[in-house]
Amino acid sequence: MTNIEKLKQKHALALEAQRWEYRTRELQFLEAGQHQRALNQLMWQVPGMAIAITGGLWYGATTLETEAPRVWVFGFTAIVDFLTVVILWRIRSLIEVHIEHQRGFSPPESAEAKSKCSWRWACAWPKRTVITCWTIALLAAAAVSIAGAFHPSAVSKPKTQEPTRACCNVSIDLPTQRCEVPLAKPALPAQPARKRTCHR
């Protein structure tokens, strides 16, 4: 084997190794994108489920007559809202991990791009807009639930009284004696008319 053939084989092996490396990075990039899309979908589904549960429990609590079960229902609703906030921030942290993983496939940012975000919170606020809005909404719902648990009588559903209808008692006097109706006599057959004769 000559030196030229050895050099060709060396470059071919290096090219094949580089090709597999690019293919591996491509698969990692696509898989990270799929995980990020799934987590983003959960990011929008979890608050909707929490809002549906909260609204259903609120309506059920207002229909209860006694105050003790109403306090338990409002307390459970507040716990659900608080735990939903924790779950949302956990999902957001996982999304951030996948975002950072995908940034590793991109070229590093220039110094000018980094200088635009010198203030940390100014750069972090656009990235946290959705999670911040959901957190405010769920904490407000939890606050309403806590207020309902401490003042259950203020959130009771007012009872509507049905209008009473006046009934008119009408008495009908029926005759108690029998009324005997005479039967009609049977019709007699018509007699033939007699001829009258004149005697002189």
Task: Give a brief outline of the structure.
Keywords: Membrane, Transmembrane, Transmembrane helix. It contains five helices and no strands. It has helices at 3-62, 67-103, 111-116, 120-124, 129-150.
Short descriptors:
single chain, 5 helices, 0% strand, transmembrane, DUF202 domain-containing protein, transmembrane helix, membrane
* Shape, per Cα inertia axes: elongated
Q: Based on helices, strands and strand pairing, what is the structural class?
A: mainly alpha
- Topology order in helix (H) and strand (E) letters: HHHHH
Mean pLDDT: 76
Largest sheet: none
Using only C-alpha atoms, the radius of gyration works out to 46 Å
Q: What is the number of helical segments per DSSP (H or I, 4+ residues)?
A: 5
Strand content: under 5%
User: How far apart are the termini?
Assistant: 182 Å
Detail the poorly predicted runs. Answer: none
The total of beta strands comes to 0
The residue fraction in helices comes out at 55-70%
